[in-house]
Amino acid sequence: MIEFESRQNDDGVTVVHPRGRLNMVAAPQLRELITAIVDGGATRIVVELSSTDFIDSSGLGALIAGLKTARQAGGDLRIAAPTAQVETVLALTNLNRVLKAYASAELAFDGD
């Protein structure tokens, strides 16, 4: 089971916070949420992964799809505070080169 919390910070960045397992069951929900956020006009998105205890290829696919959606709208998607398991999967797949991890959601767009 996974829960998604989203909020917009003072800089207009939308922070999505998945809690639980980001797998083939949850990935479509994340894709839909990111698409809805972008359709609503927000194009700078941070997915805060500190409470994501597991990610698989479907979860990675949802992050990449969200990145593409945000960039096509003129924005960007960044990740923050990944757990050790998420960092390991990103490194093994070399997606850590595409999705650079930031220490916190607040720092992800700091200076942009």
Question: What topology does this entry show?
Answer:
Blueprint: E1 2-8, E2 14-22, H1 27-39, E3 44-48, E4 52-55, H2 57-72, E5 76-80, H3 84-92, E6 101-102, H4 105-108
Overview of this protein structure:
The protein is 38% helix and 29% strand. The mean pLDDT is 96. Strands 1, 2, 3, 4, 5 and 6 form a 6-stranded mixed β-sheet that branches. Helix 1 (27-39) runs parallel beside helix 2. The protein has helices spanning 27-39, 57-72, 84-92, 105-108; strands spanning 2-8, 14-22, 44-48, 52-55, 76-80, 101-102. It is built from 4 helices and 6 strands. With 112 residues, it is α/β, with parallel strands linked by helices. The termini are far apart. Helix 3 (84-92) links the parallel strand 5 (76-80) and strand 6.
Radius of gyration: 12 Å
Task: Provide the succession of SSEs.
Answer: EEHEEHEHEH
Average pLDDT number: 96
Broad structural category: alpha/beta
Beta-strand portion reads 25-35%
Largest sheet: 6 strands, mixed
Number of H/I helices: 4
Indicate the overall shape. Answer: globular
Helix content: 25-40%
- What is the total tally of β strands? 6
Uncertain spans: none
N-to-C CA distance: 34 Å
Characteristics:
single chain; 112 residues; alpha/beta; six-stranded mixed β-sheet; 4 helices; 38% helix
Question: What's this model, at a glance?
Answer:
The chain is α/β, with parallel strands linked by helices. The protein is built from four helices and six strands.
